Prior knowledge:
Elements: H1 3-19, H2 26-35
Amino acid sequence: xxxxxxxxxxxxxxxxxxxxxxxxxxxxxxxxxxxxxxxxxxxxxxxxxxxxxxxxxxxxxxxxxxxx
Length: 68
């Protein structure tokens, strides 16, 4: 986890505690991001697909054991 991700996670947790909200709305998340100092400074770009660090292991049908 990057320092930036950790800072965002801590800010969300603080927001949830202070506002007794288990799940902030997307509007609230945007306000939280702005409160952290983020501003739109560039033209929009297409979103890149999210890639996980590791591939999930395949499960063979019927045996429920992981393949190597």
